[in-house]
């Protein structure tokens, strides 16, 4: 059964999507079978995986509204295949913004994604969910479906303050909806060691959260920022870049932390 992780932080522009697509690519590169679920109506993770969000026949919207299954809606990206780090993608586009409203009126509204994932989780080692920048019903679907949350954060002055809302939400979901849910770890991203404040906040994070802070640090790296405009994760766009390498390191740390998720066999599920 797959390990299911949300990449979440209610702030926008903190590196959620960059983390989701590059971790997916990194895990794929070391032989793990990965499904990436784009839960953000902006569809950045979809486009950033080489999939045109405007051309999708089905998206995660159809899955949430139960008009398509994940097996019907997932796609693969030829460009990721060429780069040797292919993962399956359950894409999103603007349709998903409507789901927020439409879901309010339906039953089992927080657990739609969880139920849909249960039908395919035997086909993957990891399922990564890229959440929107809000603690919304969409994010709630992600949190209800997941075993854990990966929180990317920049080491800035308000970082800890912003974290408390997310931590409280995770506690509430844990208490009321999903006893499995835990924070897997905080990932320091866009890190610049030359900036003293970032070093200080990084130390603060470690003393506050201990081993919940991942050892891997993702540096600020221009190749990671350029990659989305080429429709690829940095790791596929420029595998040698420092930022890309840090995500391979992060993928390995994730596998190690989980106490040896199954070693990759190279076998992949067939997406339609
Ligand atoms: P979110 O999904 O949280 O809104 P993104 O992953 O889209 O955040 O990142 C926000 C912006 O920062 C994007 O333009 C992205 O390319 C850039 N970015 C993210 N991580 C890095 C990094 N490590 N180095 C440089 N730029 C980055
Ligand atoms: Mg995003």
TrEMBL record:
Entry superkingdom: Bacteria
AAA domain mapped to chain residues: 3-183
Listed name of the protein: ParA family protein
UniProt organism field: Ramlibacter ginsenosidimutans
